[in-house]
Write a structure and sequence with these properties.
Helices cover 43% and strands 16% of the residues. It is α/β, with parallel strands linked by helices and 359 residues long. It has helices at residues 4-14, 30-45, 65-74, 128-141, 151-170, 172-182, 184-195, 206-214, 218-222, 227-242, 244-247, 269-276, 309-314, 340-350, and strands at residues 23-27, 53-56, 79-82, 97-101, 115-118, 252-254, 257-262, 284-289, 296-303, 325-329, 334-339. Helix 2 packs across helix 8 (206-214). The chain has two domains: 4-191, inorganic pyrophosphatase (n-terminal core) (Alpha-Beta Complex); 244-352, Roll (Diaminopimelate Epimerase, Chain A, domain 1). It starts with a helix and ends in a 9-residue tail after the last helix. It binds manganese (II) ion. The site of manganese (II) ion has 5 residues, from helix 2.
């Protein structure tokens, strides 16, 4: 059972001692960006912001020393980190931090040095955007402006993760009215555009976040005429073109795993994996991209048949190095970013031949 009101109240308690302008760290996908935008707009209404919103994107971790050094220089008084997972250890030592997330956590029960608000154990699992919206709702009962104008932002996360049908099934109370007001097509289009700019090589989700912070409806993103909206459309066209090559390559098979390899500067491996699950219903489909980051293979696993892909991968994990991220995310949508040597050991262990290896 998903209890959004309890999460909203927990967040209100967590930020009760916060000073003005906490920094917000958010993931660069549709859910993370919409959560970041809701937190930015809601904290503003609560008289606490807006602080800086730092998008934590491709190949970055909220717990990396690089990001910590960057944050130390900016000296935020407090931190809200959303949609970037839950790990042990402080994001920024000495700085009060709330982690709002729905991924399967890497540390249990509570991360030291932070307050964790997570929906990962609930059914249906609330997205980060829904958890952020729960905070906006909790504020409104305390007498601030109502958050009805932010509800469409809350819908971006579930539509991004589950599609409009899945989202409606899991969260009918929110999605029902939203789809009547804005149409499923407008929400789907907005999600697809918001997800686009992080994928190209020269990408970065900043234009998408700027739009989410000022837009009043999905149509502002879909039919927007300003440079940011144009950038989203250009990025989506570039991604579409990059998907042509892996579409024409036959998958490799080993046991229960089907593998589609690509070498693209665009972050397309999740789309590649997802697109094959319709045809490969029994397999775990892995889309792997060796063209994103020198020395690394980024991969995504999706499956219509296996409900817990994190467990599936962990049972088949190769020895991991400190730079390897493996089997993070959601049970139904996971993957990793591993060094080439780790990748080659992983696919050899799965039973793939030399054609799966990355030189
Ligand atoms: Mn995310």
């Amino acid at each position: 059972m998903t209890d959004l009101a309890a999460h909203g109240a927990a967040f209100v308690r967590a930020v009760a001692g916060f000073g003005p302008e906490p920094a917000i760290l958010c993931h660069d996908d549709a859910d993370g960006l919409s959560a970041g935008a809701i937190f930015g707009r809601a904290l503003d209404r609560a008289g606490l912001g807006p602080g800086e919103i730092r998008i934590v994107g491709r190949g970055e971790s909220a717990w990396s020393s690089t990001l910590r050094d960057e944050l130390v220089a900016r000296r935020p008084g407090d931190l809200v980190v959303t949609d970037r997972g839950v790990q042990a250890g402080a994001v920024l030592p000495g700085v009060p931090t709330v982690l709002v997330d729905h991924h399967v956590p890497h540390s249990r029960p509570e991360p030291a040095g932070a307050i964790g608000i997570s929906g990962h154990a609930e059914e249906p699992v609330p997205t980060s955007s829904l958890l952020a919206f729960a905070y906006a709702m909790a504020l409104s009962t305390a007498g601030s402006d109502g958050p009805a104008d932010l509800a469409w932002l809350a819908g971006i996360g579930p539509v991004g993760g589950l599609g409009d049908r899945g989202a409606s099934k899991d969260f009918p109370g929110l999605l029902g009215p939203l789809l009547e007001t804005h149409t499923a097509k407008a929400l789907r289009e907005a999600v697809s555009l918001v997800n686009a700019p992080r994928r190209p090589a020269s990408g970065g989700a900043r234009p998408a976040l700027r739009l989410l912070l000022k837009a009043t409806a999905p149509v502002d993103i879909v039919e927007g005429t300003d440079p940011d909206a144009a950038r989203l459309r250009d990025a989506r066209a570039e991604v579409k073109a990059a998907l042509d090559a892996p579409r024409s390559v036959p998958p490799l098979f080993a046991g229960p795993v089907a593998l589609i390899r690509c070498d693209s500067p665009c972050q397309i491996h999740p789309l590649v994996a997802q697109s094959w699950t319709g045809r490969l219903r029994r397999q775990v489909v892995v889309g792997a991209n060796a063209g994103l980051r020198p020395g690394f293979v980024h991969f995504a696993a999706r499956s219509a048949a296996v409900p817990d892909l994190i467990a599936f991968l962990q049972e088949r994990a190769p020895p991991l190095g400190p730079d390897d991220q493996f089997a993070q995310g959601h049970r139904r949508a996971t993957g990793g970013q591993v060094r080439v040597q780790t990748w080659n050991r992983f696919v050899a262990g799965l039973g793939f031949g030399p054609e799966a290896q990355v030189p």
